[in-house]
Amino acid sequence: MNKRVSVSAGTPQMSVATVVAVASCISATQSFAAGAGESSGGLPQLDLTTWPNQLFWLAVTFSIGYILMAKLIAPRIGSVIESRKQTVTDDLSRAKQADSEAQQMKQSFEAALEDARTKAAEEASQAMVEAKAQAEAAEAELSAKLTKKAKAAETKLAKLRDEAMANIDDVAKELTQDAVLAVTGMKINKTDAGKALKAVSKTMTEQEA
Q1: CA proximity to 70, closest of 1, 18, 3
Q2: Which of 4, 42, 157, 193 could disulfide-link 173, Cβ–Cβ 3.0 to 4.6 Å?
Q3: Tens digit of pLDDT for each residue in 88-146?
């Protein structure tokens, strides 16, 4: 009973269970019609002689309806369902693609941000190194200038000191000449006056020692 009965070549098949159900309905209708005909005295619609023709057209109508259902309505329903499935599949595919693109954009943005941070850190470090080098160069230049000025000042101070000492020595010699002239009436030259000053300075140094 698992076999199917073909309606026509190239058309959907009608199951045996469907045929059996139709035959059962017909048999029940015949029994009912027989009883009703006996009790009613015979009605035209219950005349069994017209039933073969009616059954033929019933089978034709049922077959046409079945074929229309199988060939037109069912394929359209299947097409709509398949189209809906394809639409859902396409939507899911586009959603996955959009998510993938969003992830790629996020990764690209994060990479660019990290690269910008790295470059900023490198530039800041380079700027600090350059600023430190410039500060050290300026400090070295200033130190060199100050050292040069200090040496120049020291040289000038030593020269002034030497000049002052020379002037003091000349003044001391002149005072010694005047003192000897005033005390002894003798006039001595600057050389003798210098010798006398050195002798007196040496004597005072020895006494202090």
Answers
A1: 18
A2: 193
A3: 999 999 999 999 999 999 999 999 999 999 999 999 999 999 999 999 999 889 888 88
Length in residues, the chain: 209
Q: How far is Cα 189 from Cα 155, in angstroms, rounded to an integer?
A: 33
* Residue 134 near residue 126, CB atoms below 8 Å: no
120: three-class secondary structure by DSSP? helix
The amino acid present at 19, given as its one-letter code, is V
Do 30 and 48 form a contact (C-beta atoms < 8 A)? yes
Cα 64 to Cα 62: distance, rounded to the nearest angstrom: 5
**Residue 14 forms beta bridges with which residues?**
5
Contact 187, 177 (CB under 8 A): yes
Question: CB within 8 A of 76, min separation 6: which ones?
Answer: none
Q: Can you give the three-state secondary structure of 145-202, one letter per residue?
A: HHHHHHHHHHHHHHHHHHHHHHHHHHHHHHHHHHHHHHHHCCCCCHHHHHHHHHHHHH
Q: Which of 191, 165, 169 is nearest to 180 (CA)?
A: 191
